[in-house]
Amino acid sequence: MRWLVASVLLAMSCDALLEPYRDQPDVYCVLRTDSTGTFALVGRTCGFEEWPVEWTGVSDATVEVWQGGDTLLFRPHPETAGVYLCDSLPVFAGQTYGLRVQSGLGTVRGTTTVPDSVQFELVSADTVMSKTGEPNVLLGVEWKPCPGGYLYELVARFVYTGESGSEYSRYDWARLDSCHTTLIVPLRFVGYEVQSLTRVDFGVRAMDRNYRDYVLLRQEYGYRSTLMHLDGGPGLFGSMSVAETTASLASPNW
User: Which of 2, 36, 65, 203 could form a disulfide with 155 if both were Cys (CB 3.0 to 4.6 A apart)?
Assistant: First the structure.
């Protein structure tokens, strides 16, 4: 009899713990200093029984971003549910922005402080020959520490001139937690004759803490599994400060 009572009590306690799963809003929005237009994605989370996960957009959301006393309202994309657009949202380094998303699934709030402006101190690009006779591009980039920047993404755009005189390009990138790096990129990766390369355009993106944590989590686990500094649901509201510069590439002597 005691065993029966204990079993019933255990079953009742388990039923109390296993409450029905409730969908939550899943939000993604990143502000950039190099663009006045931005977007937000608003979807819903799913339970384990719904795997594999397919993103489902929420069409009844109200998306607002505020800074100081100004509030901007996003408009829904006319064709894609869950996508919200804002064409005139100026983003300034060092400023704090707030996000509020309201829908039938609930309300999500978050804030981000945009990292300070990136200031380059050194950029260089040169062609070098390896010991095995393979041509490479040697890149050097250095910038001042950026307050509020927790992770940096360096983008190198290799620009070459085609036979018709038109410019074409190809990209390489690296994520860094320091403010300087030296990269050796084989010309076979770039895919073009070294004589046709004219310059390398550099871009550095300084990520705020929210975006840094989001990137590292996806890199380790491949999906979002925490609230990521949002109140009311998982996802991301982050920002990045972006700067660009150019280094000319002289023709090699070999």
Answer: 203
| Same domain (yes/no): 53, 100 | yes
Strands of the sheet containing 75-76, edge to edge, are 75-76, 83-86, 38-44, 25-32, 235-248, 197-207, 151-161, 167-176
Sign, CA torsion 200/151/99/235: positive
Taking only the tens place, the pLDDT of each residue in 97-148 is 999 999 999 999 999 999 999 999 999 988 888 888 888 888 899 999 999 9
Number of domains the chain contains: 2
Which residue positions in the chain have pLDDT lower than 70?
1-22, 46-54, 162-170, 190-195, 220-227, 250-254
Which of these, 210, 221, 238, 235, lies nearest to 58 by C-alpha position? 235
Same domain, 184 and 64: no
Residue 3 covered by a domain = no
- Could you tell me the maximum CA-CA distance found in the chain, to the nearest angstrom? 94
Do 199 and 129 have their domain in common? yes
Task: For residues 156 and 194, state if they share a domain.
Answer: yes
Residues 143 and 176 occupy one common structural domain: yes
Bridge partners (DSSP) of residue 119 are: none
Q: What angle do CA 155, 157, 163 make, to 5 degrees?
A: 170
CA distances from 179 to 29, 123, 141, 145, 184 (A): 25, 12, 8, 6, 17
How far apart, in whole angstroms, are the C-alpha atoms of residue 40 and residue 38? 7
Residues 189 and 218 in one domain: no
